[in-house]
Amino acid sequence: MTTLKDRPRRLRRTPALRAMLRETQLSPAQFIHPIFVHERDDEQPIQSMPGVSRHSVAGAVEQARQALALGVPSVILFGIPDHKDPLGTQAYADEGIIQRATRAIKAEVPTLTVIADTCLCEYTDHGHCGPLCEVPGQSGGDAWTVDNDPTLELLARTAVSQARAGADVIAPSTMMDGMVGAIRAGLDEAGFAHIPVMSYAVKYASAYYGPFRDAAGSTPSVGNRATYQMDPAGGHREALREARLDVEQGADTLMVKPALAYLDVLKVLRDEFDLPVVAYNVSGEYALIKAAALAGFMDERRTVMETLTSMRRAGADAIITYHALDAARWLREDA
């Protein structure tokens, strides 16, 4: 009989051994729970995201309570206003939907961390992340793009309004050049130097955002976002450049979005920078697992936990995920 010196299976023999020696750990404290908030009083299920709904302000407060009870300490808010216009004015209105939801959550669940998504796409009538301008000499999808520098002023106004409402973290997601610097300057000038900026530093023009656009009503009516979001075929150099610029402008954390198809990029950022790195497990990634599970093709619980673990293993310090509450429940059951 062959005598083997090295037998890795010895350390996989029991659940206790496997748990004791795991290199990668998942905890509800690492999850950020996204909440869609609309102006209405009802809850509206989102067809393309089974299990996720648009909530009233009161419903958002209840979601916040559930998150904290399950050990999930943070939420990120996405607003869906009744009125949209070319400049997205409801994004920076002091009585805007995110501002009202933030005040309500902080009043009822004060220890919860509220992160405000700072963008204009949910608030503009054309679905882009800022006011539009024509691109000379271009046609088709590239004929219209976001006017970068005027958008910076609106983002700074939005961030200050969100901070004034009680947001603990500002999370700009527009991929405008200079967005972190403009927001940092605006917050500092308004007396919010203590509020951190969680930058969507590396955000791709991805097909995985489809269900989110359904949820937020932010599908572009003209053009596309490829002129400002990153090319999925771009390499690590572009990702590092984008992240480095945000670090230089004062970002407190960096984000990679989407996460699952860009784990290599997440690992590169983790190795290069000493700031916390956040992974966004986006709507399309969520919907794929939900659809497969509902069809009986995959075990939802095992697939979700494996997916989230892969993001932690790649270097994510925190994960924005629509699975947050379910994953927190499952971790509690396994404890």
Strand runs, count = 12
What is the name of the CATH topology?
Answer: TIM Barrel
For CATH, the homologous superfamily is named as Aldolase class I
CATH class: Alpha Beta
Number of domains: 1
Figure out the total of helices.
11
Task: Give the CA-CA distance, first to last residue.
Answer: 40 Å
Averaged pLDDT:
95
| Rg (CA only) | 20 Å
Write down the overall geometry. Answer: globular
Any overview of this molecule?
This is Delta-aminolevulinic acid dehydratase. Pfam families: ALAD. GO terms for molecular function: porphobilinogen synthase activity. It comes from Deinococcus taklimakanensis. It catalyses: 2 5-aminolevulinate = porphobilinogen + 2 H2O + H(+). The structure is a single chain. The protein is α/β, with parallel strands linked by helices and 335 residues long. The chain has a single domain (26-334), classed as Alpha-Beta Barrel (TIM Barrel). Helix content is 39%, strand content 17%. It contains eleven helices and twelve strands. It has helices at 15-20, 57-69, 97-108, 148-165, 179-189, 210-216, 236-249, 263-272, 283-294, 300-314, 324-334; strands spanning 31-38, 44-45, 53-55, 74-80, 113-118, 132-134, 144-146, 169-172, 198-203, 253-257, 277-281, 318-321. Strands 1, 2, 3, 4, 5, 8, 9, 10, 11 and 12 form a ten-stranded mixed beta sheet that branches. The radius of gyration is 20 Å and the shape is globular. The chain starts with 14 loop residues before the first helix and ends with a helix. The mean pLDDT is 95.
